[in-house]
UniProtKB/TrEMBL annotation:
Biased composition (Low complexity): 237-248
Transmembrane segments: 326-351
Organism: Cocos nucifera
GO molecular function terms listed in the Swiss-Prot or TrEMBL record: magnesium ion transmembrane transporter activity
Name of this chain's protein: Magnesium transporter
Regions annotated as coiled coil: 170-197
Stated family: Belongs to the CorA metal ion transporter (MIT) (TC 1.A.35.5) family.
């Protein structure tokens, strides 16, 4: 194996589709792994989930500045300002980029026309995540529907005609069903895990975190400016301790504590509200993927019922063969006894019974009746 070639491929440039949140424009860029790690503030293990050289189950990870999404064909990094979609020739990847651009353009048009956002407005990262969930759920549901259309006629044909070809086709169909069910189950579990953890959902609100960081940065800058201005005043004209009595200092401290407490309560209320908003979004697609899983579960139960029906038919045929074999064995035993009697009468030694004219006929009659009774008892015992 060419390990050096794999290493170079892992560290080389990769093609990405970048979708801007402000304009909705998309462009093709080529970025190496380390540049993407620094740009999105992600560890290497998160980017490894998006590597097409590896096969990982569906995953949605919320990080400090990005959301890592690996849902079937959709492998992307969502930030507060842009989306980096791993370039691929798959139609679902191109549909994701086109659909995201369309929704961004629609939202921008509504804002410019109405001048205000709707109450159910979603930030950019949630809209990008929604399109990814929709693409993954649509893809899995389409595969489930295709499998259903192929499975039910094949199973009906198998119940009417059991053949090696039909059994092989059902075996392949069941293998595909198990693999698809595992993928759908993983997407469902990932969404359910996010819904059960408020901390993970709060971590995914990137726009809010960015706004708070900017507000904190500008607040620190203003505090630094005020401090420097106050220092200049104190150097030129020192303030007398009498001018700032202890009561005023206590009042300022109380006001600052109340302001910080109010801001923290407001921040927690905002986080809870946005968590509920994201939870409703995830719940909608949880219902969709759960419906797909129910379809696959019903199909698996139908396959199991068909297998049970075929096993019953095969058991019935097997029982008939066993009964026929027992009948042949009984007939062979009867014929063998007649052969023994005929062999005894054909021996060359003197027996007084041989001299009687009707002795041979009576021996045959008695032997035949005895064998009939014995055969009847054996057949009755086998049927029971």
């Amino acid at each position: 194996m060419d390990f050096l070639g794999l290493k170079k491929r892992g560290q080389g440039l990769r093609s990405w589709i970048r979708v801007d949140a402000a304009t909705g424009n998309s462009q093709m860029i080529e970025v190496d792994k380390f540049t993407m790690m620094r740009r999105c503030d992600l560890p290497a293990r998160d980017l490894r989930l998006l590597d097409p050289l590896f096969v990982y189950p569906s995953t949605i990870l919320g990080r400090e500045k990005a959301i890592v999404v690996n849902l079937e064909q959709i492998r992307c990094i969502i930030t507060a300002d842009e989306v980096f979609l791993l370039n691929s020739l798959d139609s679902y990847v191109l549909q994701y980029a086109v659909e995201l651009q369309r929704r961004l353009a629609t939202h921008s048009g509504d804002v410019f026309a109405g001048g205000s956002t709707s109450p159910d407005y979603l930030p950019f990262e949630f809209r990008a995540l929604e399109v990814a969930l929709e693409a993954a759920c649509t893809f899995l549901d389409a595969q489930a529907a295709e499998l259903e259309m192929e499975a039910y006629p094949l199973l009906d044909e198998l119940t009417s005609k059991i053949s090696t070809l039909n059994l092989e086709r059902v075996r392949r169909l069941k293998s595909r069903l198990v693999a698809l069910t595992r993928r759908v189950q993983k997407v469902r579990d990932e969404i359910e895990q996010l819904m059960d953890d408020d901390g993970d959902m709060a971590e995914m609100y990137l726009t809010e975190k960015k706004r708070r960081m900017e507000a904190s940065f500008y607040g620190d800058q203003s505090v630094l400016g005020y401090t420097s201005a106050g220092a200049g005043v104190s150097i030129s004209a020192p303030v007398s301790p009498v001018s700032s009595p202890p009561g005023s200092r206590k009042l300022e401290k109380t006001l600052s504590l109340s302001r910080s407490r109010h801001e923290s309560m407001k921040s927690s209320d905002s986080t809870t509200e946005h968590v509920e908003e994201l939870e409703m979004l995830l719940e909608a697609y949880f219902v969709v993927i759960d419906s797909t899983l129910n379809k696959l579960t019903s199909l698996k139960e139908y396959i199991d019922d068909t297998e049970d029906f075929i096993n019953i038919q095969l058991d019935n045929v097997r029982n008939q063969l066993i009964q026929f074999e027992l009948l042949l064995t009984t007939a062979t035993f009867v014929v063998a006894i007649f052969g023994v009697v005929a062999g005894i009468f054909g021996m060359n030694f003197a027996v007084p019974l041989f001299d009687k004219p009707g002795a041979f006929e009576w021996v045959l009659i008695i032997t035949g009746r005895g064998e009939s009774i014995l055969s009847f008892n054996l057949l009755c015992t086998s049927t029971l």
